[in-house]
Amino acid sequence: TLCDIGGATGLLSIEAATRHPHLQCVSFDLPPVEPIAQKHIAAAGLSDRIKTASGDFFKDPLPKADLITMGMILHDWNLDRKLHLIRAAYRALPPGGALVAVENIIDDDRRENVFGLMMSLNMLIEFGDAFDFSGDDYRRWCEQVGFRSVEVVPLAGPASAAIAYK
Questions:
Q1: Torsion of CA 70, 109, 148, 79, to 10 degrees
Q2: Rounded CA gap, 14 and 52, in Å?
Q3: What is the pLDDT of residues 71-85, one digit of tens each?
Q4: Is 75 annotated in the active site?
C-alpha cells in the first residue's frame, strides 16, 4: 500500500498504480482538493485501486500504508513542523515500512546542489522559516523519531528521494 501525502491531483498514485498492478494507493490532501483527485483518478480508470482521503496533516492522523510519500512537502515548513510530519508518518507506517520524501536535497557539504540551496533561500524569503535540507539533516531527524535507517537516492535534475525505513 502507498499513501501520497499532499497528493494533489493524484498523479503520483496514478503513476505508481499504473506501473505496479498489485499496489493499492491513497491520495491524501485537504478537503477542497479531494474531488479534483477523484476526477483524475477516475479518468485514469483506477478508482478501484486508488482511494482519496482528506484532512489536515497537522491535525489529522495520516492514513496507514506500507509506503508514505511526500513530494516537495517538507521544505515548506520550519523544523518543528517538519518533525511533526515525520513523526506522523512514522506512526502511520508498519514495521518495515518507509517514508519517501522527494525534495531538492542539498548535499551534506552544501557545495553542489545549487538549485537546492537557492530553493532553500527562496523558501526562507517566501515563508520566513521554511527551508530545504541536506541528506544528513533528514537522517538525523528521522533517526530522532525512531526510523532505523535512511538513504538518499538521486533522481533526475536536482531532486532526490530521501528514504527512511521503520
A1: -50
A2: 12
A3: 999 999 999 999 999
A4: yes
